[in-house]
Write a structure and sequence with these properties.
The complex is a heterodimer of chains A (131) and B (393). Chain A contains 2 helices and 6 strands; from the N terminus they run βαββββαβ. Chain A is of the alpha+beta class and 131 residues long. Chain B is an all-alpha fold and 393 residues long. Chain B is elongated, with a radius of gyration of 24 Å. In chain B, helix 7 (117-123) packs across helix 8 and helix 13 packs across helix 14 (268-281). Classes of the chains: A alpha+beta (131), B mainly alpha (393).
């Protein structure tokens, strides 16, 4: 079964400064943790795709009714913390395994080396009709 | 095939190639007596080809590419003997003006370089089915266009050659600019681009820009081993371990460049190659002849009017006359490159040189927020963090 693990720019309850204010080693440790997790999932045959998205500064909202000119709204957005930062699409044997992976992603190291406790949204991808 | 050769995926590709060959040959020559053994025979031959050495592969490519010309383009000269010209015509077709760059790239890799759809898909991080569809739509656009399968002439030929060179350079850049994940597939893309340029050169040995592009790619690719660390994070040019650079590629590139320059006509790729050669010449970053590089960027900017070139010229100016000279040049670019991450990262770099730590941190952060490349975002964020740490210990 496939799950989408989603991560937005908010979702950290603790007081964590923006990443560019971390020590360089802390940034490296965080990035390495995410890469290692992806490598582990790839090795186990569970990773479909993992991507980070460009920042909210580059986000646009688009609305169209098919006739009038398309309405494109540029940032900055007041709710930019709710925007998606990145996702992992995984294919696993059970919902329990999806939660285990999300938990691992959530515990990536923060600026001080302790787990960042990022909230991860776990959503099952809808599949075909089961007979 | 799997029983015989062991490798499932390669066998599958070989069988597919045999089926493609059948679809073009059988209607023309009739269905063979034993179709299955014909397919297995042809697929096995393709498989043996695959297993051969890299050197043998190069030689085979021309023939294979000429073979595929039939599948890609309307067949007008079925009896013409396959040769370099045919490969070139095929390349002209693949870089057809009716195609978007993305389609031209995919089609060139499939039909000329002989990569499988799976390989191309994984190099561009696109599902195989999507890539197959992109290639098939590209073939349809070419079939639908009035352009016949022939060598373009005169001005048109020069124009089309420019798009061929551009497509090759785009393929190279896709491969050279590291992205997350499929890095091996990407290194392969850079190698394919170099091989494609060599094929064009065989057909057009006299064209200085073809040689210039080949030299540029060799000189740039020579830095690959030094460009990223063990964690595949970017290492900027001035911090690279230059002993890791591929000396053989540099010598080849420099020799080709000298050959192109001797022909007289100066072009964009030659100038870029000349700049890459200047960097390659310097044993240490501090030995770089920035005055020479500044002059070359000046010529390149006049020739192309490209604001990205102007950014590089600003860096060279800062290295020759100090950061303020570079910053003054950047001020002129604000309007043309408003909000572009590279304008911010260049300004950050020059402010850092000038000792304006706070200004540099702010610009690094702006650049990090605006780039769409993950390794670059990591690099810029770390730059801001390093200055921040130094500033507020």
């Amino acid at each position: 079964m496939k799950f989408m693990l989603l991560q937005d720019y908010g979702g950290v309850a603790r007081d964590v400064p923006p990443m560019s204010e971390w020590a360089p080693e802390a940034i490296e440790a965080h990035i390495q943790y995410q890469k290692d997790l992806n490598a582990e999932l790839r090795e186990r045959g569970e990773l479909v795709e993992a991507q980070g998205l460009a920042t909210p500064e580059l986000a646009k909202f688009v609305v169209s009714n098919g006739a009038a000119p398309t309405v494109v709204t540029d940032g900055p957005f007041p709710e930019s913390k709710e925007l998606l930062a990145g996702y992992r699409l995984i294919d696993v044997e059970s919902p329990e395994r999806a939660i285990e992976i999300a938990a691992k992603g959530s515990a990536a190291p923060a600026h001080d080396g302790t787990p960042i406790e990022q909230s991860i949204e776990v959503r099952e991808v809808m599949g075909p009709i089961e007979h | 095939m799997v029983r015989r050769f062991g490798d499932f995926s390669d066998s599958e590709d070989a069988v597919q190639e045999a089926l493609v060959a059948a679809s073009t040959q059988w209607p023309a020559e009739g269905t063979p007596e034993n179709p299955v053994s014909w397919l297995i025979h042809v697929a096995s031959r393709r498989m043996t080809d695959r297993i051969r050495s890299e050197a043998a592969r190069r030689g085979r490519e021309d023939a294979a590419a000429a073979d595929r010309a039939v599948a890609v383009a309307p067949q007008t000269e079925p009896d013409a003997a396959p040769g370099h010209d045919d490969t070139l015509v095929l390349m002209f077709m693949c870089c057809h003006p009716a195609l978007t760059p993305a389609s031209a790239i995919a089609l060139t890799l499939r039909a000329v370089a002989g990569l499988t759809t799976t390989e191309i898909g994984s190099a561009f991080l696109v599902p195989e089915a999507t890539m197959a569809q992109r290639i098939s739509r590209a073939k349809q656009s070419i079939r639908a266009s009035p352009e016949p399968f022939r060598m373009p002439e005169g001005d048109e030929r020069a124009e089309r050659l420019r798009s061929v060179l551009r497509v090759i350079y785009l393929i190279f850049n896709e491969g050279y600019l590291t992205s997350t994940g499929a890095e091996l597939a990407r290194a392969e893309l850079a190698a394919e681009a170099i091989r494609l340029a060599r094929i064009v050169r065989l057909a057009l040995p006299e064209d200085p820009e073809v040689v210039g592009l080949l030299a540029l790619m060799l000189l740039t690719d020579a830095r690959r081993p030094a460009r990223s660390d063990a964690a595949s994070e970017l290492i900027p040019l001035e911090q690279q371990d230059r002993t890791l650079w591929d000396r053989e590629a540099i010598e080849q590139g420099a020799a080709l460049l000298a050959e192109a320059v001797a022909r007289g006509a100066v072009g964009e790729y030659q100038l870029q190659a000349a700049i890459a050669a200047e960097h390659a010449k310097a044993g240490r970053a501090e030995d770089t002849d920035w005055r020479e590089i500044l002059g070359l960027y000046g010529l390149l900017e006049r020739m192309t009017g490209n604001p990205m070139v102007a950014l590089n010229r600003a860096i060279a100016a800062a290295m020759v006359d100090g950061p303020d000279a570079g910053l003054a040049l950047l001020a002129d670019l604000d309007e043309r490159l408003e909000g572009h991450h590279r304008l911010h990262s260049t300004r950050a770099h020059l402010l850092e040189m000038a000792g304006d730590t706070e200004g540099a941190i702010a610009e690094y952060r702006l650049a990090a927020d605006r780039t769409n490349s993950l390794p670059e975002r990591h690099y810029l964020t770390k730059q801001a963090a390093k200055l921040n740490e130094r500033d507020v210990p």
